[in-house]
Amino acid sequence: MNTELMILLDLAIVIVLAKSLEELIVRLGQPPILGDLLAGIIIGPTVLGLIKATHNVEVIGWLGIVVLIFLAGLETDIEAAKKYGLKAVLVALGGVLVTFFLAYIIALLFNYSYITALFIATILSPTSVSVTSMTLLELGVIRTRIGEIILGAAFADDVMAMALFAITSSIAYYGEVKHESIIQISLALIIIFSIFYLLYKFSNKLFNGVIMSSRLIDTPMIQLLIIGMLMAVLSSYLGLSPLIGAYLAGLALSKVVKERTYRFLEIFAQIISPFFFVYAGILLNPWIVVGRINMYNAIGIVVAIVLAGIVGKILGCGGVAKAMDLDTRSSITIGVGMMPRAGVDLVIAVVGLTLGVLTMELYLSALILIYVTSLTTPILLKKLLTR
Amino acid sequence: MNTELMILLDLAIVIVLAKSLEELIVRLGQPPILGDLLAGIIIGPTVLGLIKATHNVEVIGWLGIVVLIFLAGLETDIEAAKKYGLKAVLVALGGVLVTFFLAYIIALLFNYSYITALFIATILSPTSVSVTSMTLLELGVIRTRIGEIILGAAFADDVMAMALFAITSSIAYYGEVKHESIIQISLALIIIFSIFYLLYKFSNKLFNGVIMSSRLIDTPMIQLLIIGMLMAVLSSYLGLSPLIGAYLAGLALSKVVKERTYRFLEIFAQIISPFFFVYAGILLNPWIVVGRINMYNAIGIVVAIVLAGIVGKILGCGGVAKAMDLDTRSSITIGVGMMPRAGVDLVIAVVGLTLGVLTMELYLSALILIYVTSLTTPILLKKLLTR
Hints:
2 copies of one chain form a homodimer. Chain A has helices at 3-27, 33-43, 54-74, 78-109, 114-124, 130-139, 145-174, 179-201, 203-210, 221-237, 242-253, 259-283, 295-323, 328-337, 344-355, 360-385. The first copy, chain A, has 16 helices and no strands. The first copy, chain A, is mainly α. The first copy, chain A, has one domain: Na+/H+ antiporter like fold (Up-down Bundle). The termini of chain A are far apart. Chains A and B meet through helix 1, helix 3, helix 10, helix 12 and helix 15 of A and helix 1, helix 3, helix 10 and helix 12 of B.
């Protein structure tokens, strides 16, 4: 079999299965990303072991996720965030902190190293509200106070998760927290944030002066892509994840780049980002857990981590909401609405696995948490919001 | 260096250099593809040898070219072709036949095997009129009789080139023309054309019945992409190039899929297809020619092939035009207008090189022909059309 057939066959298998399962999953009222992930689990060693060279999927996947995270930065609407206000930020902070510490302590209790514990805690911290917002939209309550707090909190949550990720991924990269590694990490963060600041400061000049003067027909889409990729490469080179750079590049430009401008980049990301989530599914290999650790122990870990992810959000977000002036039912609703994952968390999990700081049973826990929360949240929300 | 950094670094190098050179080349009035190709020549072993794993570029490149060729099929407007009429078809046929036989005979005279000779002859056959149409547009003569004949001929030319390519690539795949290989090739062609016919016959039902009933937000772009990829994989599996399948898939659907429908796929192709042309440039390695064959001999081959590519079109297209009722100056103008390459020819050349039937000095000749014709055509056309 020649190279181009192997490449195209792998890519065709991925895209056909991913889109078929997306179609199915969407009709079940779930976010399409769960279909991509499931496709990867089926294609990968967990079930069929169909893909010959994971590398072909990985190449497109990494490009896809860099573009997607860059767009997440670009789409950050700081004005809208201000509107939701301090309340939403506090709700998000409550959820992130409680979940983080709960997961960190549980991981330490199961005898994981503190770096692994930091990583799984970071994975569990973010929220991805797409299934929540679909449900709120369906029930017609997305414009209510609860809806606005959840949407605002989800935004603040993303920024906090990326900040946490920047720190834990660089600690994992250097392997331990020592005098020198702290200096290296600090230096890396100073460099990347200085460039972010310069990019932000001169974003108007860069965009309207340089980018828009290009004669290429794909202006400004391609130039935006280049900036995102260069920042990704730089931050990866500095020992931070490439995704930190991509996110900061998007954030720096979010003020000047209007929505219709990056619409084309969204289409591009829509086609190639599924490759990343399929790749995330392919990376799962539960069979290597069998025999390596005691089965009861493995089940215990998975259950504990999944519970930490659920309880952390309900207690953290719901608790803060309750501590403000909301009633118990509304507070629980907010906590449940903040439960779902399947966004940044999955990206961090993939990075952790490829860095070698995340074990397979913890990766499995992160994936199970995604499916459990995505399936239960709509049901619970409907119960809580109707009567 | 970890995997994702290596992948993103390679892709970033490619995209930054390709788009910078495109910017330069476009300002010089040349088609952007020459910038991509030049970027590959500079990055590759010819000059710098910068890319660590060509494979990363190759993966995106193959996906890109499949999408681009699929779109070429999809954009085929059979009604418009009818308008230009028989005259344009005959001009195209003249150019293809004369160039093909000239190149075939020259290659045999230089002691190449008949399979290699067939391949270089196929590479030299197609025309890519983007630089011609830019010049005609600039001179305001694109709506004249000469302009219409050239545009119509370029369309007919593409179809003929793909048909030739289907046959020569399958001969090259099986290595020789023997009894069994003829049966295998015929069988492959029968299968792929039967599926093409079914796809064409049921294109309306498929598109409006199946594809448009999808609930995915990227409908119908992603479903079109899937059809193109599946046909590409099938034809590659049958020993034809994947590009034959992609082209036929597009052609079969061209009747039902309207332009605004595949607009998004064009954007996608615009971002990723440069990777293929950069890859084509990386594949060039003139240093391996040195020492393997006599230098004077190599120069002789390159000059002869480049001349065959130029003379074949001027004699073939110009001759047919003259044999109809056009004056000598107009006939020469049409011949010159049909000279430029840098489209399907480059794709066929890459396939030939990776199949191992094309030698490096012949690949070099094909690339030189691209630059020579692209640089001289606008100058010659301006001289011929103004006085």
